[in-house]
Amino acid sequence: MLRKLLIRNYALIDSLDIEFDDKLNIITGETGAGKSIIMGALGLILGNRVEGKYAFHDGSKCIIEGYFDIQQYALQDLFDEQDLDYEAETIIRREISPEGKSRAFVNDSPVTLQVLKALSERLIDIHSQQATTQINTEDFQFLVLDSVAGNAAALNEYHTQWKHYKTATKTLRQLEEAIAKSNTELDYNQFVVNELDTAQLAEGEVDTLEAEQLQLENAEEIKRGLLQSIHLVEESEQSIVQSLRDTQHELQRISTYLSGGDDLLARLNSNIIEIKDIAAELVQKEQSITVDEERLQFVNERLSTLYGLVQKYRVADVNELIALGESLREKMKSLHNQEEEVSRLQEEVAQAEQLSLEAAQALSEKRKNVLPDIKQEIEKTLQKVGMPNAVLEIQLTQNDIFNTHGTDKVAFLFSANKGQSPQPIHKVASGGELSRVMLAVKSLVARSSSLPTIIFDEIDTGISGEVALQVGEVMDALAAHMQVIAITHLPQIASKGKRHFKVYKEDQDERTLSRIEALAPEERIVEIAKMLSGAQPGEAALQHAKELIAG
Questions:
Q1: Which of 246, 256, 364, 545 has its CB 3.0 to 4.6 Å from that of 528, i.e. a possible disulfide?
Q2: RecF/RecN/SMC N-terminal domain: which residues (predicted)?
Q3: In terms of C-beta distances under 8 Å and separation of at least 24 residues, what long-range contacts does 535-540 make, across chains too?
């Protein structure tokens, strides 16, 4: 629960310290005194964004701190989940720099607004006049049913099964779409594979064929060059071999007289052998070269085929053509495995759907079981707050589609008067009636939840007299289960508080400030008397105030 709220340098507030009681806290004050400013400051530590002008002193930091006693509310798991230090008295702080930059802290650990909101949802429920429209939403109506039915564990189970069902269904749909696309492409892929198989592709074939093509196209020129080379090396009168042999003869004749002559002769002999080997190889090559027009035509046609396939399938070379064929073969082969996977996923989806349906039905049964109690308790509270003929009907019907609430659809129907058939609340309830219905609902939910604090922000519009007194008693009864903070203009409600705060404005130098003070018992009497009769209450108003406080 909220033990203390500190506000520094915010709007019309220079500095405020508010210490709350753990039961019913009342905040009163004239319109415009600053009650909404206090709620705005509280909203900042609950995760609201900074909007508009916020600083009382320009150039100084704005700080709001809330001290929460959370030891009885099983929040350890939430702190662990958010990697926060758990403290029995947790301090939430919001700082806003003069430049408008905001920082948030939980027990001095910096946190995001998302974390702040996740924590605040477990600490405080703020109910304002505008919030009465919540009762028309299906989300809120399910919240009421599930809170009273104690459906937290059942909801978690359903959401687990439903998530599995959605994931499996999505996976199955994606696989079926992929198979359908593959089947559409199957004939084309088979054609491509057949064409590539018929071509009998081989890695490096193009390089080999291009080299052969070059040789075949120039065969006559090559033979002429080889024959001339053979003639020059070995067959002419002045052939290279004959010249070397003449040189050999001369060196042999003088080698006995020439220093180093033997070495020169040995080297010359080696060259003669090498040249003769070259001549023999030239002869072999010349004999192997043929002018083969038929082979050249085949090579040209083969290269044309390969070039055409490369261009047709927009790849770089034959190696990529081979890779394309392998890829398409694997793709067609995988179709069979995908069909088996579809069968497996269909079974998984069917099982997940059944488990989701069972979990949804368990939720629905628990909701149905508490419908009479919800109707009875809310109508009972409405009778207390001046609506003796109020009727609340809750329609719970089945839907064929899973959603976040299971397979149920819910509708709260309301009638405030005899002879009026129940209709959707927003169509038949006035503002004051809506406020009282919402109060009755919140009172019921509070007894079923572990939420520490609820704040009623001026929800007393449209009520007065005995009804207002009964509303105050309902709030007082609610405070037996949780901390209640009520901002009100009605003395009947204010008289029920265990601690009463008065918000007022004060002029100081050239500035107007908002102040708040906890009223002593005698001050409470005077304040409530003023709410009854005006700024100068008489003895009758004071006596009436005492009687209201005495209950």
A1: 545
A2: 2-509
A3: none
Determine the Cα–Cα distance for residues 414 and 485; give it in Å rounded to an integer: 27
Residues 230 and 116 in one domain: no
Total number of domains constituting the chain: 2
Asked whether the predicted pLDDT for residue 395 surpasses 90, the reply is yes
- Give the residue-averaged pLDDT of 76-103: 90
Domain presence at residue 409: no
Domain boundary among 313, 336, 359: 336
Helix (H) or strand (E) holding 377: helix 318-384
* C-alpha to C-alpha distance for 41 and 454, rounded to whole angstroms: 16
Q: What CATH number corresponds to the domain at position 68?
A: 3.40.50.300
pTM equals 0.66
Query: Cα separation of 22 and 19, whole Å?
Result: 10
Helix axes 205-217, 293-312, angle to 10 degrees: 140
Residues 184, 282 share a domain: yes
Q: Are residues 7 and 84 in the same domain?
A: yes
Residue 220 lies in a domain: yes
Q: Which residue has the higher pLDDT, 176 or 448?
A: 176
228 plus 323 within the same structural domain: yes
Q: Is 149 among the domain residues?
A: no
Helix segments in 125-260, DSSP class H: 138-149, 152-199, 205-217, 219-230, 240-254
**Residue 426 belongs to a domain:** no
pLDDT of residue 110: 93
State whether 200 and 320 are in the same domain: yes
SS3 label, residue 493: helix
Tokens 């509310």 belong to 73
Residues 331, 239, single domain; the answer is yes
Token pair in block for residue 506: 């004060």
Q: Is the pLDDT of residue 333 over 80?
A: no
Alpha carbon distance 19, 6 (integer Å): 9
Cβ distance 126 to 442 under 8 Å? Answer: no
Rg (CA), the chain: 48
Q: Quick one: pLDDT at residue 253?
A: 85
Query: Measured between alpha carbons, how far is 132 from 142 in angstroms, rounded to an integer?
Result: 15
pLDDT of residue 103: 92
Q: Which residues, 6+ apart, have CB-to-CB distance to 57 below 8 Å?
A: 9, 14
The residue among 281, 305, 336 that closes a domain is: 336
Alpha-carbon gap, residue 420 to 479, rounded angstroms: 33
Q: What is the mean pLDDT of residues 514-528?
A: 92
Kindly tell me if the per-residue pLDDT of 486 is higher than 80.
yes
Given a contact cutoff of 8 angstroms between Cβ atoms, the answer to whether 439 and 132 are in contact is no
Q: Give the CB-side neighbour count of residue 466, counting CA atoms within 13 A.
A: 6
d(CA 67, CA 2): 6
Look up the domain containing 327 and give its range: 178-336
Mean pLDDT of the 280-308 span: 90
| Helix (H), strand (E) counts: the chain | 17, 15
pLDDT of residue 56: 62
d(CA 252, CA 247): 9
* Residue 95 sits in the same domain as residue 213: no
Closest CA to 471 of 454, 452, 491: 491
Task: Kindly tell me if the per-residue pLDDT of 408 is higher than 80.
Answer: yes
